[in-house]
Amino acid sequence: MPRDPFAALNEPEPAVPEPDVPAEPVLAIPSVLARKPSQAKRNRRWEQEHPVTAVRGLPPVLVEELRRVAAQLGVSKDEVIRAFLEYGLQAYRNGSMNLNPELKVGKLTLFPAVTPERGKRK
Description:
Number of helices: 5
Strand order of the largest sheet: 1-2
Radius of gyration: 31 Å
Largest sheet: 2 strands, antiparallel
Order of helices and strands: HHHHHEE
C-alpha cells in the first residue's frame, strides 16, 4: 500500500480544552465586569518637567523668546504664536512679506542657511 503524505491532515485534531474560556462570549461578560480598575495614582512628574511645545521644529532660542513675550503680555505662549501666525499670513497675503523657497537636499526649504538667531547652522 502506498504511503499517503497527507494522512496527518485528514485526521481530526484532538480537542484541547481552553482554561476559563466559556463556549459563549456572552458568558464571559460577568467575569470581565467583576474586575475593578487599578486605583493607583499616576506619576505626572515627567509631564511637569517636559512642557509641551505647541509648534514643532522651532529652535529652543525662539521658543524661549516666545515665552518671554507671552510673560511680558500676560498671555499664553499659544496665543502669542497664533498672533504671529495670523500677522504673518496677513502680511504674506498683502505681499509685504515674500517667501522664496530654495532647493536643499531634494526638497524645498525657506531656511537654506540658518542664521545664528534661528539655529545652529550658518
